[in-house]
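call fold target=Methyltransferase type 11 domain-containing protein
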Amino acid sequence: MPFSDNAGQTAGSPKVLPACKEPSAPKLNDDFTSISKFKDTGRWYVNSFVKLVSESLPPGTTILDAGAGECAYKKYFSHCWYVSVDLAIGEESWNYGNLDYIAPLDNLPFADKTFEAILCTEVLEHLEQPRETVKELFRVLKPGGKLFLTVPMAHGEHQVPHDFFRYTSYGLRSICSEAGFNEVAIAPLGGMFTRWAYEIPLIMSLFPGAGIRSGKINLKGLALLPLRLLCSAAVRAAQGLLFALDRFDRAKNFPLGWSVIAKK
């Protein structure tokens, strides 16, 4: 494999350091791959997209996970030659020990036309120069290769202060076309009703906790426990109804986010 620690580097560019490797894969501090549709609808849609991507790639495919974080999706690509890169500044609580490379995504340490596929999920919103990053991903992608991308459209601020953008389908198409991709397919992640279902748990999180906190009984919380249980059941029922109603939103122009498959 033509992986070079110096390829793509220019004078004065940020120094690229290989990530520290541990003898065995470290435990993920935030394994969101098994999260339910009811708990985090947006993440569930992204996970489903990534699973479909992994199933579509033949054995031995060289794939770059750009903005891999803790490499939570590595397990889906055991049949591929999986390489991960991240700047490792998103979440302080994350364990970045799984990373193959620590580097800025707009200045990757790889030769031109290295990878047959690139995965980049929920990353562009955290980059101050997303257009330059997509151009760089295009550079390291082989002709005929595909970029698999997801971005949010409806999401609160997160990984602050590294949170800069939300995207429309037109903005994504502009970014991909400018980078040089000649085939760009964009699909919504859910619709208007799914978006409402996603927001219900956010509202419920405003209720006080119940039970025991730090070894002390929270009497106020215990008193509210029956109400919380009732509300929880009502929330699940409401979410289920909204998920079912989403099929009637044919426009799908107000989704949680977007998935993109761009071919070089």
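return ok
The two ends are 20 Å apart (CA to CA). Confidence is low (pLDDT under 50) at residues 4-24, 210-215.
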